Amino acid sequence: MLSIRNLQVTVDDKPIIQGLNLEIGAGEVHAIMGPNGSGKSTLSHVLAGRDGYEITGGEVLFDGQDLLDLKAEERAHRGIFLAMQYPVELPGVNNMVFMRESLNAIRRARGEPEFDAVTFMKRVREKARLVDLDDKLLKRNVNVGFSGGEKKRNEILQMAMLEPRLAILDETDSGLDIDALRIIAEGVNALRSPDRSMILVTHYQRLLDYIQPDYVHVLVDGRIVRSGDKQLALELEAKGYGWIAGEAAA
Amino acid sequence: MSSTQETVDELVQTGYEHGFVTEIESDTVPPGLSEATIRTISAKKQEPEWMLEWRLKAYRHWLTLDAPAWAHVAHPPIDYQAISYYSAPRKKTDGPKSLDEIDPQLLDAYNKLGIPLEEQKALAGVAVDAVFDSVSVATTFRKNLADVGVIFCAMSEAVREYPELVQKYLGSVVPHTDNYFACLNSAVFTDGTFVYIPRGVRSPMELSTYFRINEARTGQFERTLIVAEEGSYVSYLEGCTAPMRDENQLHAAVVELVAMEDARIKYSTVQNWYPGDEQGRGGIYNFVTKRGECRGDRSHISWTQVETGSAITWKYPSCILRGNDSVGEFYSVAVTRGKQQADTGTKMIHLGRNTSSTIVSKGISAGAGQNTYRGLVRMAQRAEHARNHTQCDSLLLGDQCGAHTFPYIEVRNPTAKVEHEATTSKISEDQLFYCRQRGLSEENAVSMIVNGFCKEVFKELPLEFAAEAQKLLSITLEGAVG
Q: Looking at this predicted complex, what is its ipTM?
């Protein structure tokens, strides 16, 4: 479904991703772990199409099609979703209205009929239960006055509403207490399906206790230096990133 | 980043959809201003002698004044002798007795603007007075209104038909000595709307005036007077557009509101005069004096304005809170883009006890637009326990524009309470990316964020016009991203 081949990315002429290769098949869950500054967030943003990154080499194919030429919204229309590390506040924009505009923009782009208000409301209520999000938050402005955990749950709610084909969760676990983490993980697990792939970007292996990945990759200096299964994450937890970084340098 | 710069550039190329010119024969007096011009206007309007004298007194005073220079706007000096002060569509008959006799070209012009003047096609519950250049060409639903005693007619007609009311109230809120442009208006005003709501009457419909400047080299100087007697209520809306022309045209209006005991006036404006092109050529100079007086106890005046047009806007819809427990409100969205300049805000003059006022101002600047909020809150010595809350927010789109805030606060009573809050923000790259990642185009994202920014003001507009204002804002800001 997603093929990243020899991807190279610079920010302000500084190389961040330096020849990254990754193949993700339909329905697979891949965890990408790495120390601070290893390029994890850059990878998430580049896949989602954020401006400000220069692609200096390589290619990214999504369903065999070149992804890098598409605008961020066009990638969203094709089913790419990024749950942000720092969900943004939109003062004055109602959360429910935002989700409806978003869903309908994507449906329009795909030539599907828009959701009417009733169908939409039913769906939001149903999905909000999945992440245990209070109805009151649906009526508030997007992320304004939300706690850290509420913001992250709101991201997973949007993911549930949009039903992406590829979901990238960028440090969704950061800043969460254990209860919030469990609720979010349950929400994410409920969304696992044979035609939905996921990339979990995380610094800690804690998240992976709740969401079992099929593969674990370790990113150091913009390259995947080791790939394995869940065991690799546990090993990292025990030995720290220095262990692999040292090997990679050698 | 680079894509952002491109979209900012696109912003100024957005078209102005009301820029057409109506080809209609008109009766236009030659440019120039003198006592003779004023006598001509007065004669054309078949005015009584007192009205002419009133005008001449204002004109003589105007000759002693200098144009104000304190506003945060820049423009070349205005040549008042180069302006024509009267232009009216030439009538084919003696004057339309009913809407059927109105020149079809005029009806067509208003239809194009989305303001059908045929009553059967009109927006339900809204009566319209259509002012074309210097004259009112039609006023709808007059009979329905007259049935409950509401007077809704052209100002020139009111001068002839209701002289005692006009003499009593005209200039009682904005005297001709008030300021340079109000004084000029007093001398040369041509038409406008007169509204009188009798005691205890709630106007059964929204009243509105639609102003259109059509002729080249003319100014529009209209005068609106609304009087709400004890315990009455009226909601009034005005809209304005003009053709695209290379020259600057002057619009210097005066609006006076009088609210007696327990009366309430809600006055809404959607101003979309031609703003000029991207080089700053042409556009309307909108120099307007608007003031309401809460004359009676517990009276209430509320101004809501959405200002998207004009090359330069200079206006401060104000409230004089004379009655005890009276309430003044000002809700404003002002947008400047391209080379537009706006210096706008309000004055809340608290004279009575327990008077309260609310100011919510939202300024949006894009392109090379300059947006200034200027507001005065004055608590007079006898304004015991008066309160004001001011909230003044600026949103910047792009890095060529400016937002300025000049709040003036004068408190002469120790029990008065004044609060002022102000914020300045930009639409951030993060916000845009967030919206686009959720499938929204950049334009939709900006329009959603801007509408969110203006929500507090839009909710004050009458329902029919809130949607129009939102649409207008999204057209105005098409491609404006920073």
A: 0.96
